[in-house]
Design a protein that fits this description.
The protein is α+β, with helices and mostly antiparallel strands. The chain contains 12 helices and 24 strands. Helix 9 crosses helix 10.
């Protein structure tokens, strides 16, 4: 499976370019590994995009966070962020990783002292062809007993053992490593579950207190659909080496054949493995089937605009508009500060007049409806040596509350971009406040939908 990393990542309530997404070196999760990890697969189906087993993945993430003492994010907020990440990256099919962690620093050990935040990373992968058969070595590392770990929790900090076992297996010439329970029985391989086939019957190791793989559960459902018997049992390495077929299951691997286990060689993929791979490959094409309904979770449809825009005219402001513009900016500042309106500095009206009359480089645009001004946008033209040209810097934009979510704000930005292009300027920027305010996330999403992208502490849009 070839994964192509997507350029946009979800981090702390918004979509960002990967190169601009930043974690503090004091991040609690970096120091203590206290983060819940899930990975899901996105598929295109005849009925639209579906995520494989999303509800089950979110349920397991909830249990993992509870084991850490962390509050779980609202599932609706995770699904909304997943949807925005998928659409922002124009992702058709792919592999998506979710990481929920304590939003605090390493100065305090207790993760429950902090709110929970999450990040989402996505990789494009439109090829459903199974990965080639792999070889496994048996690592000397064992899964710890139940009283030495958080049972069933899928945590990033627990993957130190998988990482070390994978490294040792690769160094020994194998593709990956089989890991045993502390009692010597087979547990799984790094990051995936294992099945063997003997005389046409599937057998898989008992999970016990370790992670119950969701693809493992799906394969048991697929085997029942194909009329194959599947049992869970205590299995040793010798059982696997004497098997007719061996394969691994996981979100990353899907269903992947094993061609070698230490010195045991298998004809891979065998007939049972191939039948399961083909059934797994066909599942996204059958969202209306029983298995499709149980395993393929649809994404929410984009919400249509709930408000019709009133008729309005967007035009450059005139001197007669100064009082209304000052009133709009007063309301904007109060909204940003989540406080009562306060009078603007005494020079506010004169500054607006200078922009309107062309004494300062820039303009003020207003949207006028039946009952007066419904929107205001103020921008300056800034000469920038590092760009070798000027750019438009949006200083203020405000729309009356009853005309938000109607497209009026986007129309003001379009008018500002056109005004700049008429003067040979193709770049617009806006700086969001460094402090958090009540509508910061909604404000960022508004600019992102309008075509702006993060550039350091600002957002930028280039129009041709």
């Amino acid at each position: 499976m070839t994964l192509e990393p997507c350029p946009w990542i979800w981090l702390r309530d918004r979509l960002q370019r990967v190169e601009h997404a930043a974690f503090s070196p004091l991040e609690h999760a970096f120091h203590f590994g206290a983060a819940a990890l899930e990975a899901v697969r996105l598929y295109q189906t005849p009925e639209g995009p579906r995520i494989l087993g999303l509800d089950a993945h979110l349920d397991r993430m909830d249990r993992s966070l509870q084991a850490l003492g962390l509050a779980s994010p609202d599932p609706a907020s995770i699904i909304a962020a997943l949807t925005e990440t998928i659409r922002g990256n124009r992702l058709k099919e792919g592999y998506i990783r979710l990481l929920a962690f304590a939003d605090g620093d390493c100065g305090q050990l207790d993760p429950g002292a902090f709110p929970t935040t999450f990040t989402i990373q996505a990789w494009s992968c439109e090829d459903r062809t199974p990965s080639p058969p792999m070889s496994l070595g048996v690592t000397a590392l064992h899964r710890p007993p139940e009283h030495c770990m958080l049972p069933g929790a899928k945590l990033s900090g627990s993957y130190h053992l998988d990482a070390a076992a994978h490294h040792q297996a690769r160094a020994a010439g194998f593709d990956d490593a089989l890991i045993r329970h502390h009692d010597g029985s087979v547990c799984e391989m790094t990051g995936a579950n294992l099945f063997l086939v003997r005389r046409g019957r599937l057998e898989t190791p008992a999970i016990g207190h370790t992670i119950a793989g969701l693809t493992r559960k799906l394969v048991r459902d697929l085997s029942a659909d194909l009329g194959l018997e599947c049992i869970e049992a205590r299995l040793d390495v010798n059982d696997f080496q004497a098997a007719d077929e061996v394969f691994a299951t996981g979100t990353f691997h899907g269903i992947r054949a094993v061609r070698q286990l230490e010195d045991a060689i298998f004809h891979a993929p065998g007939p049972v493995t191939r039948a399961l791979q083909e059934r797994y490959r066909r599942l996204p094409n059958e969202p209306g089937s029983g298995l499709g309904k149980a395993w393929l979770t649809p994404l929410p449809s984009p919400a249509p605009s709930a408000k019709p825009a009133i008729p309005h005219e967007i035009r450059p402001a005139g001197p007669e508009d100064v009082p209304a513009v000052v009133e709009a900016l007063t309301l904007l500042l109060a909204e940003l500060r989540a406080a009562s309106p306060e009078e603007l500095p005494s020079g506010a009206a004169e500054t607006c007049r200078r922009l309107i009359e062309g004494w300062a480089p820039g303009t003020i645009l207003v949207a006028e409806g039946r009952d007066g001004l419904t929107g205001v946008l103020a921008l300056n033209l800034v000469e920038a040596g590092h760009l070798g040209s000027a750019y438009g810097l949006i200083q203020d934009i405000w729309v009356t509350p009853d005309q938000r979510a109607t497209g009026l704000g986007a129309a003001l930005i379009d008018a500002a971009a056109d005004w700049c292009l008429e003067r040979g300027v193709d770049t617009l920027e806006v700086g969001l406040p460094k402090y958090r305010f009540a509508r910061l996330n909604a404000t960022w999403r508004f600019y992102h939908r309008a075509g702006f992208r993060d550039v350091g502490p600002r957002m930028r849009m280039v129009r041709q």
